[in-house]
Design a protein that fits this description.
The complex is a heterodimer of chains A (185) and B (577). Chain A is of the alpha+beta class. Chain A is built from 6 helices and 4 strands, in the order αααααββαββ. Chain A folds into 2 domains: 59 residues; 92 residues, H-NOX domain, CATH 3.90.1520. In chain A, helix 1 packs across helix 4, helix 4 crosses helix 6 and helix 5 packs across helix 6. The longest helix of chain A is centred in the middle third of the chain and has 19 residues. Chain B has 4 domains: 136 residues; 150 residues, Histidine kinase-like ATPase, C-terminal domain (Heat Shock Protein 90, 2-Layer Sandwich), CATH 3.30.565; 132 residues, Rossmann fold, CATH 3.40.50.2300; 127 residues, Response regulator (Rossmann fold). In chain B, a hairpin with a 3-residue loop joins strand 6 and strand 7. The chains are: A alpha+beta (185), B alpha/beta (577). The interface between A and B is medium-sized, with 15 and 14 residues.
């Protein structure tokens, strides 16, 4: 997993909890990297699961919730650092639709070895978008958090429902986003 | 407190370790980029190598193609020689035999011989067309520009086309406000004869009209030649392919009207070479209009001194510096264009022109130069032509000089009463002027003139011998250049008629040798060849050869007239030296 995810996670824990918390979870979690992350490095994705587990123990918040919250946070950081992806984009659906065919393509130019999740899309009507997530790593929660982050960024009133698919949890999920239609309009 | 410090130290260590990782990754990436660059430049080199190889291949192919084209041109040149030489004999002999038959009043044979003669000429024209086209396509066709008076060209053309018009009972009309044009006369003539020939071929009991007008095209001054007929016309589809080689309106046309279909293709290409255009419009069953436009000047030439811009003084000075063995002719005319025109008319003849722009100067120059002939304009400011004439005829030293009046007005009686020898109306054409001047060259007192015919082809040599003997010349025949050189002293020729392509010693080598022999430096050489002349060939002969005639492109009378003129010039030169 790309180092940018790790260093952003550490930043978030520092910001939302404390520098002490960061030190504690890293010390407890016997990591191969020793918790020294650089954005341009690549690390075992197990490390982030380990760190989340430790954080969950310290805070009493379930791991899934923590990852979703991290997803929202990560969305803000990514978009803030790469404003070009927002150019000409007017709503959340439009942005989400270009993740697979534009943003991930650009990511591969910088990191040819990046293992990115795969998204397929369905749009049964203009106010509904379905995204099918599949990955070699169990981060459906992270995807959900990022989707929510995106919807918040554009300030829409969109509900997200998630159906997990397949046997192993978090490897494949179906997200259905529905715009709330204002009847008065 | 130390626990707090330990925490910060751990944090610092993590950050340091992360930085080192980042630096290591950066190093690796830089190295990667370096190797990728290496590979790219290798690939690039390889590509360059490939391009070089490919270029070398292409160069080789190009050289081979150029060589092949040279071989082809050479083949064509030789072929033209091989074809024209025997054909020339057929044409020449059939003409002579026909004349003999006519003299013997054997009209039966004369008619048949005329047919052979006509068919031979037709075959020759087809061969010439094919060779022309091959030359154009090989980029070997060259243009020879000269300034010509269009009215002369048109007179000439009328003379040639009238029999064609008469044959199909057509009326031939030529209308023109033509002036002077700088062009390749041979090619212009060929185009016009082709267009008029076609018009007459496809028109019966109708009218063929040639209209010549000064027309500017894109700001370039030029002349437009429109050939209009009332013949069978063409459909759109027929017009589309008209200027392509080997194409006639359709195959039935070929059966009915004959021809190779090359004429228009050649005309089209010629007009383009001269910077001109040719176009057609036609209505089926109603007739066709072909329009040729060509610029008045050589579009390809670099700045050149135009004769018209020379002053009278310069012209006279130029004339003075010319070989002075010619007859002197004083031209008294106030129109400077007349001066340059006369100069052009006389340039190839043995006349040395002296110019005067008014009557007073005219009389003064007549006293100074004692010319052999004077041409005199009538309407001049100051002293008019009649006054000048009176003064000339009252001067005992000048009164014997023949005066030729050149005038716009017809006042013959007054002219002859005052003592004019000849009276010509302006505009004067070259032929009639030269014809009149010829009268004032005294006949040679010398007897038979010996002509040496250097020619390897026996039928041609025999034909030339017969032709020349008939005209009163003595003839000696040599079969190649070496034999001719060996026998010069024995034969003592007054003129040499020279073939170019001969065994043992060819014409070029012969010319190179005789150039070095001062004894023969004044003997005119006329080249008579079937070889297609290149610019290089002409250059090689330049300076020594007086005239180059293409077998099959001259007629008998023209040749004899030319020889006669050259011989006279030669005798004059001998006398004056």
């Amino acid at each position: 997993m790309k180092g940018m995810v790790f260093s952003t996670f550490i930043e978030m824990v520092e910001e939302k909890f404390s520098i002490d918390t960061v030190d504690q979870i890293i010390e407890e979690a016997n990591l191969q990297s020793g918790g020294a992350y650089t954005t341009i490095g690549t690390y075992d994705h197990g490390e982030i699961i380990e760190l989340v587990g430790r954080l969950s123990q310290h805070t009493g918040i379930p791991g899934g919730e923590l990852i979703k919250a991290f997803g929202e946070y990560l969305f803000g950081v990514l978009v803030g650092g790469h404003p070009q992806f927002l150019k000409g984009v007017e709503d959340a659906f439009q942005f989400l639709l270009q993740v697979d065919r534009y943003i991930h393509v650009e990511v591969r130019k910088l990191y040819p070895d990046a293992q990115l999740p795969k998204f397929t899309y369905e749009q049964p009507n203009p106010s509904t978008l379905i995204m099918n997530y599949s990955s070699e790593r169990p981060f459906a929660d992270l995807a959900e958090g990022m989707i929510v982050g995106c919807i918040r960024h554009f300030g829409h009133d969109i509900t997200v429902t998630r159906e997990d698919q397949g046997e192993a949890p978090g490897l494949a999920s179906r997200f259905t986003m529905t715009k709330k239609v204002n009847v008065d309009e | 407190m130390s626990e707090e410090l330990d925490k910060w130290i751990r944090r610092y260590e993590r950050e340091k370790s992360a930085r080192k990782q980042a630096e290591q990754i950066a190093e690796e990436k830089t190295r990667e980029i370096y190797y990728i660059n290496e590979e790219l430049s290798k690939l690039n080199e390889h590509l360059e190598e490939m391009v070089e190889l490919r270029t070398a291949d292409l160069e080789k192919a190009r050289d081979e193609a150029i060589e092949a084209s040279k071989v082809k041109s050479q083949f064509l040149a030789n072929m033209s020689h091989e074809l024209r030489t025997p054909l020339n004999a057929i044409i020449g002999y059939s003409e002579m035999l026909k004349e003999d038959a006519e003299e013997l009043e054997d009209s039966y044979f004369a008619e048949d011989l005329q047919k052979i003669h006509t068919a031979g000429k037709h075959l020759l024209s087809i061969i010439n067309d094919i060779l022309d086209l091959s030359k154009i396509e090989a980029g070997k066709m060259e243009l020879y520009y000269e300034k010509v008076e269009l009215s002369n060209v048109l007179n000439d053309i009328r003379f040639t086309v009238e029999p064609l018009a008469a044959k199909n009972n057509n009326e031939l009309i030529i209308e023109s406000d033509a002036g002077i044009i700088e062009t390749d006369l041979t090619k212009l003539r060929q185009i016009l004869l082709n267009l008029l020939g076609n018009a007459n071929k496809f028109t019966e009991n109708g009218t063929v009209k040639l209209t010549v007008r000064k027309v500017e095209h894109d700001g370039v001054p030029g002349h437009q030649f429109q050939v209009e007929d009332t013949g069978i016309g063409m459909t759109e589809a027929q017009m589309d392919r008209l200027f392509e080689a080997f194409t006639q309106a359709d195959s039935s046309t070929t059966r009915k009207f004959g021809g190779t279909g090359l004429g228009l293709a050649i005309s089209y290409r010629f007009s383009h070479m001269m910077g001109g255009l040719i176009s057609v419009s036609s209505e089926y069953g109603q007739g066709s209009v072909f329009t040729l436009w060509i610029p008045d000047e050589n579009v390809n030439k670099i700045e050149e001194l135009v004769l018209d811009e020379l002053s009278t003084e310069q012209l006279t000075a130029a004339a003075d510096s010319m070989e002075s063995n010619g007859k002197r002719i004083l031209i008294i005319d106030d129109d400077p264009t007349m001066h340059s025109l006369m100069r052009r008319y006389l340039s190839h003849h043995n006349w040395q022109p002296i110019f005067a722009a008014n009557g007073f100067d005219g009389i003064e120059r007549a006293r100074e130069y004692k010319p052999d002939v004077i041409t005199l304009d009538v309407l001049m400011p100051g002293m008019d032509g009649w006054k000048v004439m009176q003064v000339l005829k009252e001067d005992p030293e000048l009164k014997h000089i023949p005066v030729i009046i050149l005038s716009m007005t017809d006042n013959r009686n007054l002219g002859f009463t005052l003592g004019a020898s000849e009276y010509l109306m302006k505009p004067v054409d070259r032929k009639s002027l030269l014809g009149v001047l010829q009268k004032y060259i005294p006949e040679d007192e010398l007897g038979e003139s010996m002509i040496m015919v250097v020619e390897d082809d026996l039928p041609t040599a025999q034909m030339m011998t017969k032709l020349l003997k008939k005209d009163g010349y003595g003839v000696s025949h040599a079969t190649n250049g070496q034999e001719a050189l060996d026998r010069l002293d024995e034969v003592n020729p007054r003129l040499i008629l020279l073939d170019l392509m001969m065994p043992t010693m060819d014409g070029f080598e012969f010319v190179a040798h005789i150039k070095k022999l001062s004894k023969w430096e004044n003997v005119p050489i006329v080249v008579l060849t079937a070889k297609t002349m290149t610019e290089q060939d002409i250059e090689q002969l330049n300076g020594r050869v007086h005239r180059i005639m293409q077998k099959g492109f001259y007629d008998k009378d023209e040749l004899l007239k030319d020889l006669d003129r050259l011989l006279k010039r030669h005798e004059t030169a001998i006398k004056s030296s």
